[in-house]
Amino acid sequence: MSRAxxxxxxxxxVIVLSFTAWSxxxxxxxxxxxxxxxxMVHFTGESANGEQIYxxxxxxGLRWNDxxxxxxxxxxxxxxxxxxxxxxxRSPAGDRYWIVATDxxxxxxxxxxxxxxxxxxxxxxxxxxxxxxxxxPWLLNVAGAISGAGNAWAPEAIYDSATGDYVLYWATNTPxxxxxxxxxxxxxxxxxxxxxxxxVYIERPGTQGIxxxxxxxxxxxxxxxxxxxxxxxxHITIEGSNSILGSWTSIGNLSHMGISNGATxxxxxxxxxxxxxxGRNEWNLWLDQFATGRGYxxxxxxxxxxxxxxxxxxxxxMGADRKRHGSILNLxxxxxxxxxxxxxxxxxxxxxxxxxxxxxxxRHVNLDVRIDPNVSPLQDAQFRLVPGLADNSGHVSFHSVxxxxxxxxxYGYDFVLAPDDGSAAFRADATFRQVPGLADSSWxxxxxxxxxxxxxRHLNYVLRLDPITDATGRADATFRITN
Length: 483
Hints:
It is elongated and about 75 Å long. A hairpin with a 4-residue loop joins β8 and β9. The protein has 5 helices and 34 strands.
């Protein structure tokens, strides 16, 4: 190769690399809109529906409001059909999101010993492009290749800009070197559908196990490190590093604040959960006071380089639901608008009155749906008309007031009250277009989303989804939304 050609080739390479770097920076900058709010993903406990995906919203990072009227936003339909310890992850470009959670349902009656030694070795994953419409869940087997693995718990993930993929890490109970205990394992993934071979990421000395670990990336390396992690390992241990999978420096623990994971007295906590305050170098470390059942409490720092910089605070509120081990995502204005538009609690409580039997209202009874007079309890006839589960533009879904997470849906053209299972079929069956009443345009009729030639109507007082062909059908398919 001639010297001149070499110079041209080198120049082209520089141009290509510069363009690639500019493109990546521009793409990330386009996604880096200012944050205006916060979204918490969590579970609530071991109740019938407590081990599912719940959301809460905050404007200031301290005071939280439950979304979706305190009902789960997604139900696991795979594995154990329950999830705990959910983590939410955003892609660097802000065009994709994942929720990754423990596949475990203690409400099924399993013992903690069985769950730890003979539990699921998979995680449950959902994917979304807008934080509102989520895929069906799938199982990601992360611990199957680990010798003697008993489970896979408390997953977390963080994007590694050095390698352009995600470090996925979780706790697995394994017998290694004579010690059967939980260790943190890690693997790399690009799509949360496959991973590299897992390896031990964090191990504590002797018999001390470790389950809950969460990492946060700190802009400007405030405190001396780019990354900080908090781990529940008897104490709440804080460590710092400049590389996710590199060496970590112990910064200390919170024992001087009377806070531990059980190694000392005082406040016993778990599930450390980081969140940076929007627009400033200040962080909350949320800690779940599981031992007393009081839920999360925040401690705050403006410099994570020393545990002595943390301060307790009392100016917070957690909403109605008890929030168990989860994670927090800072929201842009666009993301916040979408989330609140879909799951905000502004929808009023309504009843649905029949046009041709005006003493009767739509109600559920034993999960069947009909129109009745004198409904008791009244809540059986109360619903919130929320944005349609399958299409939130011009469509609605009927969310039960006294069965949170349950919606009216058609099934075989009959109507039932059923829990949202997160499937596309459920969303479509539970979505309707509000149109002028077929018998009286000042009233309302409801056209099916997935069978647009059919409308909600009653027949012998039982709710159905039928084509409407005559005056009787038009009257049966006409309703009034009342308070």
